[in-house]
Amino acid sequence: MFTTGASNLAEAVDKTFIIIFSIAGFFIVGITAFMIYSVIKFNRKKGVPARQFSGSNTLELIWTVIPLAIVMVMFIYGWRGFAPMRKAPADAMVVTAIGRMWEWEFDYGNGIRTQDLVLPVNKAVRINLKSEDVNHSLFIPAFRVKEDVIPGYETFLWFIPTTVGEYEILCTEYCGLLHSSMLAKAKILEQGDYDSWFAESKETSSVPEPDGYLLLRNTGCIACHSLDGTKLVGPSFLGLFGSERRVVTKEGTISVTADEKYIEHSIYDPNDQLVEGYARGLMQSYTDVVTAEQLVIITDYLKTLTGGN
To answer: What does the pLDDT average to over 63-73?
Structure first.
């Protein structure tokens, strides 16, 4: 029925689930059986006068006290599982999970960024959650942790991974057309293997200035815009620069040239001039994400993507 728990929080969550599921199952079976019994036992033919029943204080007391006791049991077990989730250890390692349409990125705070979450086993980790566009929700089923990722709202989750292996990371807040493709892995390594990975990643992460492709990838642009001409949520970057575009504005549909000014306008005010045939409102302004210097690097890279319009 359950996947194997792989964190310190899994046991309490599973116990709470089993208790609530068992209580619900008991009442589903019991109430259904009682309904069937009542239909058969108290069936009356037409023309037979209905019998009258008076109230029962004892019965009223029973079906008030027993449900209250059951609800309190579920609350106590639920609280015991939930309360530790909001108390991250002071010595926990800190990783920032960045959610954007439609990918996860994990920032270790020292120049290392990965698409998958890499952690050492038996080490407490606090995941600070950040969204760069819309609502997301980080869910790692094997660790029994899930938390919404809301733009402008600081939140976190924490856990101690207890088993080496690879585990699914999902987004469980509908965030647009490619929501179901917003997947990643949590890779849990032995401490020695993690130290080796960390040292190699630290060495290779010291790139002086990111090139245009890395900027597009790190800001989530290529999740919606392909580099090979494929139409995704937004138009492809292939052959973009210098091409003629039919765009929809507040005044109507016009034709524009995709030059430096057009690219800047599309990044900072993406819904003002929308390419014909694409939905409005899916892309948010990247004013606080892409700097003026990075915009120049991105534009120079887009100039190299020659091909059909």
So the answer is: 93
- Tell me: do 66 and 147 sit in the same domain: no
Per DSSP, helices labelled H in the chain are 10-41, 57-82, 191-204, 212-218, 260-268, 292-303
Q: What is the pLDDT of residue 308?
A: 47
Structural domains in the chain (count): 3
Domain boundary among 139, 171, 204: 204
Tell whether 220 and 119 lie within a shared domain. no
Of 185, 204, 223, the residue that ends a domain is: 204
DSSP 5: P
Owning domain of residue 234:
212-303
Could you tell me the two tokens for 297?
């690097």
Rounded to 10 degrees, the C-alpha dihedral 209/210/215/218 comes to: -110
Q: Which pLDDT tens digit goes with each residue over 27-43? A: 999 999 999 998 988 78
Over residues 211-236, the pLDDT tens digits come to 888 888 777 788 788 888 888 888 99
The pTM of this model reads 0.69
Q: Decide: 137 and 173 in contact? Cβ < 8 Å.
A: yes
